[in-house]
Amino acid sequence: MAAVAGVRALQRLHQPGTFQRCFGLIPVQLTPTCLPRRLCTAPTGSKERKQPDTSENVSLVENLNLMGVDVKMARLRQPGVLRKAFTNEQAVALFLDKKGAPTNMIASIISRYPRAITRSVQHLEQRWELWRKIFNTDEEIVNVLYRSPESFFRTSNNANLDDNITFLTSLGLNTKDLHRLLTTAPRTFSNSLVLNKRMVAFLEEICAELGGKNPEQFPKAVISRNLYILIRSTKRVRTNIDILRASLTLSNSELLDLFQGPGAEILDLSSECLKNNFLSLEQKMVAHGCQKADIKKLILRFPMVLYIGKDRLSTKLDCMLKGGITMEQIVRKPKVLEYSTQNISGRLKELKRVGYDFQEKGINVLDSSQKRFDAKIERLDEIPIS
């Protein structure tokens, strides 16, 4: 019932006087940019209500319950927020409501990132304007907030956000690139500017070490392909480079080509995971008669294979081998491993039904969109099976 009450209350936040009716607070005149202090939670007098042993702010907890917030989750995530004497929960809720966030979304955002209610409306308005430099609509921002509340509310340093946008733009990243970054890896923008500059300088050093002629262009190439790279440590990236160099006996020029291309996507992978997945792939391929050169070819052609865990990789390979595909064909066209085992299995059954010969026609048919694959099957259905 508290959740329902919270939904109804939030739906009426923009109407005059509703704070008093919904939350038992004194109505005051709202201003466009900052809500008055009376709309923030303050501790009640000791004569009226005793604080529990946990020293939580009882009025705050009651307000959050009325708003439909999962207080248990909030308590687990950031317990210190519930002990604050002054918070801004209703002003934050009203701000998000005006930006188009549904009431259940507002409650979810606060439940998962309670620190949101400590931000002032003035701060939020400034931050929103900065995000609008990258996003076209408020709706896009609301969707990112719902997926990652921390990305918007984690820091109150709007100047740092502005500096990061300026810095990333200076690398040659355009608005589309920044949009992808903020949507996929929003923590990039709450990193300190110093931290982001450190990773960029590190990538430039790597390029120079590998004999690259344009180190200043290398960070852009890597970031464009790996949106998570700026929220990883330089130590992890360095370890992964060393693992790949040693495991595949790659030259400097081969490493440079790899990281300027699709290989950039595996630089942020956990080093332990990278090592284990490589060993699994190596063991499986050697068991099927492959040489080291074959393993190297497959990885250079499809580096994302190193994201596939041991069990999933083994299941996929077994599925294809049983379906009449050879390891030699997989090495030549490893991108087929990108598809799920269910997808591969279903396509193999369809191709078997129409008498498709992989040895004669190859496996390119497996690496196609569903629409193109269905069209191919439709054409093959019209050809009589000899």
Automatic annotation (TrEMBL):
<dbReference type="InterPro" id="IPR038538">
    <property type="entry name" value="MTERF_sf"/>
</dbReference>
<comment type="similarity">
    <text>Belongs to the mTERF family.</text>
</comment>
<dbReference type="InterPro" id="IPR003690">
    <property type="entry name" value="MTERF"/>
</dbReference>
<keyword id="KW-0805">Transcription regulation</keyword>
<comment type="subunit">
    <text>Monomer.</text>
</comment>
<protein>
    <recommendedName>
        <fullName>Transcription termination factor 1, mitochondrial</fullName>
    </recommendedName>
</protein>
<keyword id="KW-0238">DNA-binding</keyword>
<keyword id="KW-0806">Transcription termination</keyword>
<keyword id="KW-0597">Phosphoprotein</keyword>
<keyword id="KW-0677">Repeat</keyword>
<keyword id="KW-0496">Mitochondrion</keyword>
<keyword id="KW-0809">Transit peptide</keyword>
<keyword id="KW-0804">Transcription</keyword>
<dbReference type="GO" id="GO:0003677">
    <property type="term" value="F:DNA binding"/>
</dbReference>
<comment type="function">
    <text>Transcription termination factor. Binds to a 28 bp region within the tRNA(Leu(uur)) gene at a position immediately adjacent to and downstream of the 16S rRNA gene; this region comprises a tridecamer sequence critical for directing accurate termination. Binds DNA along the major grove and promotes DNA bending and partial unwinding. Promotes base flipping. Transcription termination activity appears to be polarized with highest specificity for transcripts initiated on the light strand.</text>
</comment>
<dbReference type="GO" id="GO:0006393">
    <property type="term" value="P:termination of mitochondrial transcription"/>
</dbReference>
<dbReference type="GO" id="GO:0005759">
    <property type="term" value="C:mitochondrial matrix"/>
</dbReference>
<dbReference type="Pfam" id="PF02536">
    <property type="entry name" value="mTERF"/>
</dbReference>
